Amino acid sequence: MSKCPTCFVMNFPLITKSLGIVSLLIGASMALCLPWALPVCSGTPTIEWNAIGALVASVAIAVLLGMGLLRLGRGADGRMFRKEALAVVGLSWCLASALGAAPFLLSGTRKGHSESPEATAGVRMSVVDSLFESVSGFSGTGATVITDLEDPQLVPRAILFWRSATHFLGGLGIMVLFVALLGQGSAGKAIFRAELPGPSKDVGHSRVQHAAWIFAGIYLGLNATVTILLLAQGVSLFDALCHAFGTIATGGFSTYNDSVAHFHSVSIEMTITLFMAVSCVNFALLYYVILLRPGRLFRDAEFWTYTGILAGATTLVVGFGLVHGDFANTTEAVRYSLFQVTSILTNTGFGTHDFDAWNEFGRGLLFFLMFVGGCAGSTSCSIKVIRYLILAKALSLQTEQVYRPSVIRPLRLNGEPVEPEVVRDVIVYFATFLAIAVGAWLLLLAFEPDATWSGIGGNPHEKLMDCASGVAATINGVGPGLGTIGATRNYAHFQPASRLLLSFLMLLGRLEIFPILVLFAPRFWGAKQ
Amino acid sequence: MSKCPTCFVMNFPLITKSLGIVSLLIGASMALCLPWALPVCSGTPTIEWNAIGALVASVAIAVLLGMGLLRLGRGADGRMFRKEALAVVGLSWCLASALGAAPFLLSGTRKGHSESPEATAGVRMSVVDSLFESVSGFSGTGATVITDLEDPQLVPRAILFWRSATHFLGGLGIMVLFVALLGQGSAGKAIFRAELPGPSKDVGHSRVQHAAWIFAGIYLGLNATVTILLLAQGVSLFDALCHAFGTIATGGFSTYNDSVAHFHSVSIEMTITLFMAVSCVNFALLYYVILLRPGRLFRDAEFWTYTGILAGATTLVVGFGLVHGDFANTTEAVRYSLFQVTSILTNTGFGTHDFDAWNEFGRGLLFFLMFVGGCAGSTSCSIKVIRYLILAKALSLQTEQVYRPSVIRPLRLNGEPVEPEVVRDVIVYFATFLAIAVGAWLLLLAFEPDATWSGIGGNPHEKLMDCASGVAATINGVGPGLGTIGATRNYAHFQPASRLLLSFLMLLGRLEIFPILVLFAPRFWGAKQ
Prior knowledge:
Chain A is built from 21 helices and two strands. Chain A is mainly α.
């Protein structure tokens, strides 16, 4: 179709071709989960054979779809412009989520708890359940509907591995498809272009490709490091891989009901804490650290603000927790607070302590931290620290503007002036993000019956905050919320409509809103200007 | 001091002089409350004599302070520039609030309920209590710490009248000092300048003065109309005036514990509903309606959006309320919903029904409406509809910008393009407003002990939402919040630190943040550029 250089006509074959490749990659990844089903075949044959069947069928679907798409898009040419890139990113996540739901659905994985009235048989995951779990995985959220992960009669190990693998794929996709292709939305645009590692200083095609490879390399390296460190601490290969995926993608799916608390090991907790924190540093800056030039990292305002928030929030949680007797002693307080604050701030969602039982200030602070996140150019979700930095500076300048309208100062970050358009984009992003969150909150309040909260010993007045935390935990990619969807609970009892809404929020939040929003703009697809 | 025309040096004598005038006006207004103490002197001598003494002393303080300030500022000359105007507006509210607290404090007004353990004597209002009540009055919030308004042994009638009079003065101050002097902050700036009634089209000094007189006239006219309508429905002059003040200033102080529900009259409720709604329409547009040229009003996008929100929210509250059995029948549902939605949307805070007992969607919607408010150029507080309109349009343009960076469309409102600076200001205002609200929420969570919520049958998990509603109800000038500070409760049991924080929020919200924020900027007071 379009060969015009200033292409305003959507290059559909190119998009189709790209989606075909994504589909094939998903299929290949699913195939890699098959080995995990084999060793346990003798012990629990039925369910693992189901898993094998489901994975094979899913691979077949993905491969057939991929080949079909490639065929449709054959002969695609022309460069990929911003519009196509946006469409590919937005549609890739939708496609991956849909394909990724197939193994959950086809394998007959049970979401019900074995102690619940559904007893041994459990309740099969529905289409919505499977989609929720898949979106949650790819978006690095880690919100789940599966109540008992540890019963091999309910959840096949191969499916459990696929569940964690979606984190890995989603995180890789964010670094390559999103960060490299779109330059990290409006956030990092200011510093990102400047920091982008590459052979030359011009923001050319090859430089972006180069950056994508480097980012993918760092991402794989971090995953490998965590896996090895966990193996060295006696964790099985299966668990080590799954938890590495959950850590580096800042996802949060565990293979245990008690999440990371299951290991009862301070060193494992500290390993995961460290790497959750590292995954939320700008990968471009990590690259310079690997090149033994850490100066750039230590001169970066966002990095220091992020570290400051982490340290400050942990101190507050330790202090308030000790005053309210949430922890047995100071050592425990530091151990659990540091892990939990890091887990929430980085939007991972792993747990070692039931933070829902903390004092209300601690709960409130964690809720707020959900909206912060890590640095731009990382696997972190949420609003990200750089936007807060720019907002704070814009506010300070605005206050001066009020009484000195004639004085115009540029906003500076790391000593460099930030373009006014970037500042505007950041503030619009803030407002949009919060507007969507509020709208989703009202919808969730309407979808969920008050009865969910007025059950055994419940209090319907908790609904408002719990629903707010549900929105916060999904749009920010955290996973667990407060109250009825808190650290020790999950989303299984939410209405299907609510779970679809929350799935949508996970995608929106993960892709920084606009790549999903444009898909709904008729003008976006229009052939003419 | 400064006689330079492009004055960057602060003209302190001019500010001092202006504050002196404000002080004298407050004194004069207090003196007007004295007659209400006299008729009941024979019945309850002690407390009313206390009130008379307190008012006389307060008048003396205000007059002395005013004369002192006038003396200090004598010989002030030069025009008032934006900087001075900001300082006068910000400091006037602080001064008025401080002076306004004196009658509460000096009269020994009791905040305790006569049924409470403090029994007949009650608990005297402290300095913080008095300040809270005074700020709440001047800012048109209507949040109170007085538990029993109806016991003449606890609260003198003259003080009760002064309490409502602060609403009247605050509302008048907003229309004259704030709207006319500052052109309604960033909000209405776009449409306001265009709509400003005045003899000429140039935005000159005389035009602003003209507008101030017109606005004051409409404001007084609305107060008189409501007073007469209430008198005609059998309300006493005292109650009619107090409720008119509460309605038109969108304040919400009543003279009864049950607020407007006390009258048990549909017609009184409808009168107040109508005038709460009218007070939140842009006064510049009301002026054209009075001139029998309502065309401008009916062509105004903000007015229609405001009306739409009012109608839509009422419908939703009626619908969800009926489904959940919150109301006995449809008539009651419409009656109470319309009143309550109007009261909350307009940030008045009057009550006829305990909305805290409604279903959770209804509660959540009211919480959201607190952040909406009425139109710019009205007595409404909160963020205001026009900012939402501009935000929605900016978001829609931004979505297009994402895939079409080269196409720049101007944002249009009522067919006129809005300057990019105004759009930026509006979005910064949004972000600032929410950032301050979140910060205040975290502070409030830290100030208030969890024990407040874990008392008799309480649930500490309600704290997060109740505190959020406390912030929302004060920064938006509503008054009652949810839960422990809900429609049937008050702020008496909050910590003094919390009440000071909330008082500060009321002032911030009422003056659209920046006139208060600049007072804390050292550069603002600096003599040099």
